[in-house]
Amino acid sequence: MYIDFDQLQNDARIWIYQSDRALTDQECQQSFEALKEFIDNWNAHGSELKASVQLAYNRFIVIGLEEAHHLPSGCSIDASVGVIRNLEAALGNSFFDRLNLLVKTSDSVESKSLKEVKSLIKSETLPPDTLVFDNTITTKLEMQQQWPKEVGNTWLGRYYSQKV
Asked: How far apart are CA 22 and CA 57, in angstroms?
């Protein structure tokens, strides 16, 4: 059962899929429609799941699920991954490349390889207050409060202390 993303409870579980390139507005709309249709029929062992989807910054698909309504099953989670894989094929991009980090600048979102980020930290050209999208968050509340967040406050923060 699809609900508006704003109606999800703060403890709703989320999954974030990061596109390897910026999606066009048309691709975002196409993706939203496909995901909304999927969510309308999404279930676990015959019980409907209460969920939503949001496309953010033309780079992210965020699926939110009210686990208090009904817990997902392994098969239902696999089905959601299958829908994302189908979108990858239709759009000709990847949503599963975990080797890039998206950095928020004043007017855009830039992709950097993790190797490049580590090098930028070491050379002191990426300050610890630079905003990045940490896609390891798991709840809507974390998304609201910590997405994006300062790179120094992510798992990459340890590289700042190693540059001494």
From this structure: 8
pLDDT tens digits along 78-124: 999 999 999 999 999 999 988 999 999 888 899 999 999 999 998 98
- What predicted TM-score, i.e. pTM, was given to this entire model? 0.92
Whole-angstrom distance between the N-terminal and C-terminal Cα of the chain?
Answer: 52
What are phi and psi for residue 103, nearest 5 degrees? -110, 130
- Across residues 61-89, what is the average pLDDT? 96
Residue 120 · residue 83 · CB < 8 Å:
no
**Residue 43, SS3 per DSSP:** strand
Phi, psi for residue 142 in degrees, rounded to 5: -60, -40
Rounded-to-integer distance, Cα 34 and Cα 31, Å? 5
Longest dimension (CA), the chain: 56
Condensed to tens digits (0 to 9), the pLDDT of residues 9-20 reads 999 999 999 999
Other CB atoms within 10 Å distance of the CB of residue 84: 19
Listed in sequence order, the residues at least 6 apart from 104 whose beta carbon sits closer than 8 Å to its beta carbon are 57, 131, 132, 133, 148
